[in-house]
Amino acid sequence: MATKIESRVTTSHWGAFRVLTNNNRIIGTEAFAADPHPSQISESLAAAVHHKTRVARPSFRRGWLAGGDRSRELRGRDEFVELPWDEALDIVAAELQRVIAEHGNESIFGGSYGWASAGRFHHALSQLHRFLNVNGGYVSSVASYSTAAAQAIIPHVFGIPFLKMYLSVQNTWPTIARHTQTLVMFGGINPKNSQVSMGGVTHHETDGWFREFDRSGMRRINVSPQVTDSPPGSEWLAVIPGTDTALMLGIAHVLETEDLVERDFLAGYTTGYDRFSSYLLGATDGQPKSPEWAAKICGIDAETQRKLARSMASTRTLITVAWSLQRAQNGEQPYWMAATLAAMLGQIGLPGGGIGYGYGAIGAVGVAVKRMHGLTFPQGENSVKTSIPVARVADMLLNPGEPYDFNGERRHYADIRLVYWCGGNPFHHHQDLNRLQQAFRQPETVIVHEPWWTATAQRADIVLPATTPYEREDISRALGDSYLFHMPRLIDPVDEARDDYAIFSELARRMGVEQAFTEGRSSEQWLSHMYDEFRNDNSDLEIDIPDLDQLRQQNWVDLPLRGEQFAEIPFADFRQDPEKSPLATPSGRIEIFSATIAGFDYAECPGHPFWQEPDEWLGAEMARRYPLHLVSPQPGDKLHSQMECALADEQGLRPSTIEINSTDAAARGLRNGDLVRVFNDRGTCHARIHVTDDIRSGVVSLPTGAWLTHDSDGTDTQGNPNILTRDLGTSRIGQGSSAHTTLVEVAPLDTDQ
Questions:
Q1: pLDDT band at residue 567, thresholds of 50, 70 and 90?
Q2: Residues linked to residue 688 through DSSP beta bridges, in sequence order
Q3: Cα 498 vs. chain centroid, distance in angstroms?
Q4: Which of 204, 358, 386, 670 has the most beta carbons within 10 angstroms of its beta carbon?
Q5: Is 547 buried (19+), middle (13-18) or exposed (0-12) by CB count in 10 A?
Q6: Which residues contact 301 (CB under 8 A, 6 or more apart)?
Q7: How many helices (H) and strands (E) does the chain have?
Q8: What is d(CA 724, CA 719) in angstroms, rounded to the nearest whole number?
Q9: Has 113 been annotated as catalytic?
Q10: Strand, helix or coil for residue 356
């Protein structure tokens, strides 16, 4: 007789949802009733959790087990051997001890990206880093693929860490709705991207606020190569990718030459405008950055630029910049230039005016919510002080000991002998995946915790099967959210999967550091301990936070933390009194010219924002061979590459769909639905075209998220754009990802190469 269908709420990085289970299997999901615009990502959950690609048992690459040089070239092509857990853990512990003894802790790279679960205890990054720290430390990474360039440049300009700025020092949606008259969105504001957030987002608001903007009569300008980067109702300026800085300079030139600049604001709240204006007017290089000059670069005509500049100067204007703009060569520049443009308008510190970053990028941006102390699993202290910019993994593995520059520092790459990856799939989000594959063949050992046989797992030596968030108990609390969730264990672990804490506890016991890692606590005891600390840390808020047993019974609670009353005006104190409330920059002001950056002596990043041609763009010589600019946005049907195993099974969904303008399709004899090759000198992938006029001619859009799958000649058959993207740092300032600096060609799949 079948057991009764059970229904419980859990949460994720894309929001809360109800999970239906029967006979220890997930059989479906339902939307969370309190969410006004719930994400559809969870619809694939049941198929993904029980998918044939689950890692069933501890698995070792046969060539690695054989010893000797361990056949590193076979990574990605070798077969795997399953071993019992005890034997597997013995081998892993012994290998870690060997590497530490022979090469030191600076030979270990701890790779993790933190998006595997919204649960705060079973947070893969924290679990891995704590385990490595109690064993002497590891080489770490800093920043993120999404915002590395921004994280480097914003502290120089505003004196504020970027993560703090985009979460806390921004106009909130209620303030924007009430005060903003002109919203200029460089890179758009796409609700598709805001369906996810770090730690989770329960109340999806972006769509609803844009409907409110419609009612208010707010003018909205979407500056993007795709019309779909903003909700309907926005004006579309179809800018050439990678040229936003040039367009901003053209607008700035109008403001300066037509005396529309708020000079009192520049004098009282900024430093270095005179140095920048000399460049703007052409005094330093002989080239005024006029709208006519900008038009030849960005594709937006001069008169449109003039009209926009005048409108921005005569209305309450908020300039927003998407994360995508800084994921390009010289990606620091549009972020700096947008801040400069906002300063020229003099509206920074006014409600609904000034500058904002990352609206629509994740769900937490723009939300009017009172912040609480977090709920975290302590990582401990890393004794190894060596780190790399997160997007420079392949550089490090391929160039041990080589020097590189990063944000004013001369550093050297560590000589990595062991990579330990937990909670991530770099063969999804890294650039130039063929190069990354070569890089992954350099270490002596690669260890991965993973529920599924992803491309990263396939290129490891040791794969330990990890549970999904639905196979363990946890608690979720996101900084930009008002909800608190108990995440119940919904099903037993699939096959022989274990959670990361259980795996690391056993490894710690074998390596003699069990007490240091566990502090004598079980998983349940850690949950209780962390939750008690969370309640104590937030006791001053005087709100009713249930105890853990109550939360387990309730499943979730909406705390009184969300509402317009929690909206704060960014930089209001600074604007009121810059002497009393200075910024944490060397000048205490917004730095339009930075003496610090100028002192780095980087040709690609002088002391003020400027335009420099990227290596790959539609104005480059390379465009004669590869005449289409590829953008690779986040997917709408999943978070990064999660759920991909299930989606790839659906008829017609793979290879992934690439959008192409009707003019470009016709020139290549392509029709809607055709299978094509997308290629450049770095690689080739397959895709299925969607012909549309919602994308600028000369631009194609292929979302990330498809699992890398090579055929016999090295072509990716599923449609992963990162087989094509260039693994180049944004600049020596940020060393971030330059995924959006990519030229390609598209041809019918049966065309001779």
A1: very high
A2: 657, 675
A3: 27
A4: 358
A5: exposed
A6: 291, 295
A7: 26, 29
A8: 10
A9: yes
A10: strand
**Using CA atoms, how far apart are residues 412 and 396, in angstroms rounded to an integer?**
9
Of 113, 145, 420, 501, the active-site residue reads 113
Q: Does pLDDT of 607 surpass 90?
A: yes
Catalytic residue, candidates 14, 64, 85, 115: 115
Burial status of residue 389 (CB atoms within 10 A of its CB: 0-12, 13-18, 19 or more): buried
Separation CA 64–CA 92 (nearest Å) = 12
What is the architecture of the domain spanning 59-143+385-478+489-531? 3-Layer(aba) Sandwich (3.40)
- Distance from first CA to last CA of the chain, Å, rounded? 59
Domain 148-370+568-600, CATH = 3.40.228.10
Contact present, 718 and 706 (Cβ < 8 Å): yes
CB 107 within 8 A of CB 142: no
H or E element at residue 433? helix 433-440
> In terms of Cα–Cα distance, which of 163, 631, 181, 168 is closest to 370?
168
On the question of pLDDT at 344 being above 80, the answer is yes
In 3D, which of 509, 594, 456 has the Cα closest to residue 76? 456
Query: Known catalytic residue: 115?
Result: yes
- If one counts every other C-beta atom within 10 angstroms of the C-beta of residue 186, the result is 27
**Would you list the domain boundaries of the chain?**
6-49, 59-143+385-478+489-531, 148-370+568-600, 621-748
CATH for 621-748 is 2.40.40.20
Amino acid sitting at position 311: S
